Amino acid sequence: MKNEALIWHIFWHVGIFDDISGMFTAPNLKFLRKQKGLSQEEVSAALGIKRTTLSGYENGSAEPNFENLIKLTDFYAVA
User: Fold this and answer.
1) pLDDT string in tens for the chain (79-residue length)
2) Helical axes 2-14 vs 66-76, angle rounded to 10°
3) Global pTM value
4) From the CA atom positions of the chain, what is the Rg in Å?
5) 22's torsion region: left (phi>0), alpha (psi -120 to 50) or beta?
């Protein structure tokens, strides 16, 4: 349980979650990707997910599961 709390704190710190509501926020994912100068194809290939899945995360039509949240956090190396 202690590790799970740490992981959620990292997600918040990364900016994947909104400061006020604590909810997942899609625009932050797009911002992080663009800040690194990467395409959706590059990120999705690196994460092992479909480009359309990543697109859904970025436009807010889908939310990543816990496993993919970990992948996103590791990929953007903000922990």
Assistant:
1) 455 555 555 565 555 555 544 455 677 888 889 989 999 999 999 999 999 999 998 888 888 888 888 888 888 875 4
2) 60
3) 0.69
4) 12
5) left
Q: Rounded to an integer, what distance in angstroms lies between the CA atom of residue 53 and that of residue 58? A: 9
Burial class, 4, CB count within 10 angstroms (exposed 0-12 / middle 13-18 / buried 19+): exposed
Residue 51, classified by CB atoms within 10 Å of its CB into exposed (0-12), middle (13-18) or buried (19+), is: middle
